[in-house]
């Protein structure tokens, strides 16, 4: 058993003594300089650590703890049992040099354009930063992207962002940790942007339960995030925006959701052109329908308002309609009825409810969060919550107002006035496109043609159909299908698809992505790369496995000269020269650790396997041997190894993986009966090895609702090489 100690050498002329690491084992001794110096009076020889509460002492002790952990790991927990002194020195010096090179890098406060033309981007729902990574890898004809702001709601997303982009890459990219549905989100985002023009917005708002038709029955906390995403687009008006989503969005509600998304995107208008539309409306305005036409004008005018002004604009619209009702009331009801009738009161109070939409939306949002926090679902509480949330929705309030009008005994000559009030309220809740459809119903054929010409000039973004992008077509060793909606501003070139960078028979295989990491066993952690001998590991199939390795360009295209293997690209990194790391990769446990300088500068990060018991390992061996979970079911049953787990995905070395999700235990390594490490899953997502996933490695139970550990960060990410292909296509077309 080796003992690991720290001691001080003789002080230099300034009175600082070098700290040395000493290892004693079986009568032999290894000594190494840590590269750190300290005044002897500030070093406790018994505890072998710096004294005092200063930040400097804290950082020195963290460094010594780090070296002690790596020495202990090497000598007591590695597969190798016998070491010669030179081997121990080499490995530990590698850790020491890596740490020393990385510990004194300052964050760059201002990005200076080194070359070319920068285009700015913002990453919403950023998660780990898959979009951000891909955009920083893209460069075309001296054009590249400048990272301005990322946003997400989770602390570990922020920690991973700050560690990667601020500390490691030295950028001044901001992070906004806030729910996009909160009232002051846009104000805070604009403050972070600090007056810069944004050229591209990217992001993937979760769309599990939203319905743009107003049929929100689940009232999930993810409801309608897409609409808030579009609010950001309306304010920033970027040249392009990219919305990524699951393939199922195309067929949700029979394809209606997809069409509604496109309609909402087409409803974003060029506010400078609104006067042209208003002039047309006023020109065809008829005295008999003046109120309805004025309502449409007011609805169109709402599109011009900034978010901070929309509340008063909406209230102004409702009060405009309410004034119409006030003038109508004496004509349809006598004084006593107007004060006491339940239907009149419903209409009158309905206007009050609609005028305070912002307050009700805030209340609804808070209730949904609490409902989700308390797991209210599939129980006797859920209907009461759902009914109340439905009651306070604008559509439901307008429906009650409409039914109240129908219940009143309105004289025939005033029925149309009542119908116009209802139509005006419905205009209030419609999209811009739906308002235009109402306007068209009052136009003749020549007026409709004129209106269509105006609409062509007033629509700010062009989009026809989304398209499905398979990540494996862009050099990612994973068959991950995602839907991309790309909105192109009307002054920009239209983008309808992202051309593949590899053909079907050129796709990157799982073996190419993972073979050099295959030196780790069950319940082990590696902090440095180790040699992998394919001929020894694969014996009879070594030639076949070696043939899978190809030299490729950065985007996965096989090339004969000057290329690198996928694994080599992962180690070298794919960022353009401007964004090369300023410090070596490092890991921190949490935000407090980052603030206190508790960085772990390891050569390899996130490469730790799960601690699976003998029964699980035996089960995985059976499934791996059969090559398929379904085929293994009978033998598992016979051996008493069956499980209620729904599925295991056995990786095939010569294929691409299925969609990488957030639970590592769902996958079985192609060569060992074990789950994947975070680093292996990150490789299958095409993240560089220098991208370190911070915080907890995994979590479980109810914590999954609030925590985003490393595995979740990886599984939910956009593959950087897919994002790079998107960014490259935008650079090819952007003006």
TrEMBL record:
<dbReference type="GO" id="GO:0032259">
    <property type="term" value="P:methylation"/>
</dbReference>
<keyword id="KW-0489">Methyltransferase</keyword>
<dbReference type="GO" id="GO:0044027">
    <property type="term" value="P:negative regulation of gene expression via chromosomal CpG island methylation"/>
</dbReference>
<dbReference type="InterPro" id="IPR031303">
    <property type="entry name" value="C5_meth_CS"/>
</dbReference>
<feature type="domain" description="Arm DNA-binding">
    <location>
        <begin position="9"/>
        <end position="71"/>
    </location>
</feature>
<feature type="active site">
    <location>
        <position position="207"/>
    </location>
</feature>
<dbReference type="Pfam" id="PF17293">
    <property type="entry name" value="Arm-DNA-bind_5"/>
</dbReference>
<keyword id="KW-0680">Restriction system</keyword>
<dbReference type="InterPro" id="IPR001525">
    <property type="entry name" value="C5_MeTfrase"/>
</dbReference>
<dbReference type="GO" id="GO:0003886">
    <property type="term" value="F:DNA (cytosine-5-)-methyltransferase activity"/>
</dbReference>
<comment type="similarity">
    <text>Belongs to the class I-like SAM-binding methyltransferase superfamily. C5-methyltransferase family.</text>
</comment>
<keyword id="KW-0949">S-adenosyl-L-methionine</keyword>
<protein>
    <recommendedName>
        <fullName>DNA (cytosine-5-)-methyltransferase</fullName>
        <ecNumber>2.1.1.37</ecNumber>
    </recommendedName>
</protein>
<dbReference type="GO" id="GO:0009307">
    <property type="term" value="P:DNA restriction-modification system"/>
</dbReference>
<dbReference type="GO" id="GO:0003677">
    <property type="term" value="F:DNA binding"/>
</dbReference>
<dbReference type="Pfam" id="PF00145">
    <property type="entry name" value="DNA_methylase"/>
</dbReference>
<dbReference type="InterPro" id="IPR029063">
    <property type="entry name" value="SAM-dependent_MTases_sf"/>
</dbReference>
<keyword id="KW-0808">Transferase</keyword>
<dbReference type="InterPro" id="IPR018117">
    <property type="entry name" value="C5_DNA_meth_AS"/>
</dbReference>
<dbReference type="InterPro" id="IPR035386">
    <property type="entry name" value="Arm-DNA-bind_5"/>
</dbReference>
<dbReference type="InterPro" id="IPR050390">
    <property type="entry name" value="C5-Methyltransferase"/>
</dbReference>
